[in-house]
Amino acid sequence: MTSRSLGEPSRSPFALPRGARGRMAGLFMLWANRQEEVLDLLDVPAGAEVLEVGYGPGGLIRLLTRTRARRICGVDPSAEMRDLASRPHSDEIDAGRIDLRLGAAADTGFPDAVFDRVVSVNNVAIWPDLDAGVAELHRVTRPGGRLLIACHGGTKPSLLTRSNALSEDKIDRIERALRGVFSDVSRRDLTSLTAFTAVR
């Protein structure tokens, strides 16, 4: 599978983790991806409803549980990642605060305008259709809500991050897609991520 918009190959176990190899990839992602800066930039207000697209092994989900978000939801195409991300949160899942589903950027399965914050980290390059994904995330974001899309890059990327960083023309393609439907689109380079924020 390849992103039709960005032309990024997605045959690695990190793209759609499955089986033992996929679980190993998930554990590596938990170790390698530090997302505290993403959480700061997301700026989750008390009582917010948050959606993470491509939650993987659940590193950002764990950070979100420390905020005062009322509800934390996620979609990911991998059943293995859903199981791995869910394990530490059985009580909060039972209570309805956390809702992790199978799904994708272009088909989240959630109603219109329900989320105050929507976030995607290090997976936009492998969305099958960038424009469809952006349109869907616009649909589920409340008026005045914020979308954050981040990808490998930043001011001090590791060797691994640099090897996965998108070229400037692909970064520009993401920005154009966001500007087509969102307002107040801005770019910011974090330590190991290039991040876009956009307001509905």
UniProtKB/TrEMBL annotation:
Signal peptide: none annotated. PANTHER family: METHYLTRANSFERASE, N6-ADENOSINE-METHYLTRANSFERASE TMT1A. The lineage of its organism: Bacteria, Bacillati, Actinomycetota, Actinomycetes, Pseudonocardiales. One of its GO terms (molecular function) is S-adenosylmethionine-dependent methyltransferase activity. It comes from Saccharopolyspora karakumensis. Residues 51-149 form the Methyltransferase type domain. The keyword Aminoacyl-tRNA synthetase does not apply. Keywords: Methyltransferase, Transferase. The keyword Cell inner membrane does not apply. One of its GO terms (biological process) is methylation. This is Methyltransferase domain-containing protein.
